[in-house]
Amino acid sequence: MEQSSHYITICSDSIGDTAEAVVQAVIHQFQNQRVTIRRYGNVRHEDELRRLMEETAQLQGFVAYTLVQPELREMIREEAVRLDLRIVDIMGPMMQAFIDTFNDAPQARPGLLHQLDENYFRRIEAIEFTVACDDGRDLGAMLKADIVLLGMSRTSKTPLSIFLAHRGKKVVNYPVVPEIAPPQQLLSLPPSRIIGLTTEPEYMLKIRSERLRMLGLPAGSQYASLERIHEEMEYAAALFKKLGCPVIDITDKAIEETAGIIMGHL
Fold first, then answer.
1. Integer Cα distance of 158 and 67 in angstroms
2. Which class is domain 6-114?
3. What's the pTM value of the predicted model, to 2 decimals?
4. How far is CA 201 from CA 12, 168, 183, 185, in A?
5. Which pLDDT value is given to residue 251?
6. Which listed CATH number (3.40.50, 1.10.10, 3.90.320, 2.60.40) goes with 117-265?
7. 231: CB partners within 8 A, 6+ apart
8. CB 266 within 8 A of CB 147
9. Residues contributing to the annotated binding site
């Protein structure tokens, strides 16, 4: 197994996405680090827990966990001592703060966050809506959307849309191109439901040049020229001003950060 990578094991008695979200947020703070995430969900038995702990110890990594069952929480601490393995309790401090402050006790039932409740079905509906409306494929859907994202090519509209959909928001993203007039549906929306995305020209040049390289296309394309980028940005800025919508500069921002700003606007 390749030893040049660092290994982080995620252990959860639910699906593990809470722990992975925290781990990913931390990884983004470190540059030039090769990290392999090993995710184990629905861990309910001691032999499963013991096995993943021993594997992680052999890889010289650490374990981030979200366990709510008392017996598993106790066992992972014991195994950490036995194996001299670092563990990170993602939920424990928050649960203890809740207990100490509000004098309440947890239910200790795995997976409560992901029960098939109304919020779950709303997220699924939002994801299906957003995928169907990617890149302006359904202009009529703008009138039903919670958020309409506008931006020139390579302003992270699609991944940002999917991220927001997982937060239960129906999103339409629409590409801003000088040669194409904005649709009437867009002009009829209230500014509060529209978000404009922009970036620094040099940052966009770097992203587009890399995109052409990955596709095996010549670097001298107009698509990745500063002249074309400035033209698109000027058109987009004029459109955003006409619509009166909030504008977010995504330069060097993670998807999560931009999404947080958008949710703040809402």
1. 33
2. alpha beta
3. 0.62
4. 43, 32, 26, 29
5. 94
6. 3.40.50
7. 178
8. yes
9. 151-158
